[in-house]
Amino acid sequence: MQQLSCTDTRRRLREVLDTAEAGLPIGIRRHGKLVALIESGRLQEVLLDSRRLCRPQAVAEAGGWSVFLPGTPVAADGANLDEAVDEFVTALREYAEDWQARLRFAPNHHHHWPLVQFVSLASDADISGWARGDLQ
Prior knowledge:
The protein has helices spanning 6-11, 13-21, 40-49, 81-101, 113-121, 124-132; strands at 2-5, 26-30, 33-36, 57-61, 64-68, 75-78. By secondary structure, it is α+β, with helices and mostly antiparallel strands.
């Protein structure tokens, strides 16, 4: 993997971005840590295949639908599946915001970073498709 300092990265930013977009490994070393760069679509693909990203569940109950994400506090209800999924997307977006602001420091939430990365990168349509099982 090509590893650059922050200074080299600034000088060669276009090349760094081209390398990441091409799917080639590249990283930036800062304060003794290596940060890997990856094009967001590729990261989404990896996250969707990850066992660390639990899958949403949808169930029909009491004349409506519920969509929830096992192991998280994210759940939504609706009169029909479309409404429940729309509410689920909103609930996930709110959870991702809360996670970034404070929940990432909580021991029972810090391991949800793959979920937050996916939600942050995905469109509402992507999240909706994932909730319905269309994205695997």
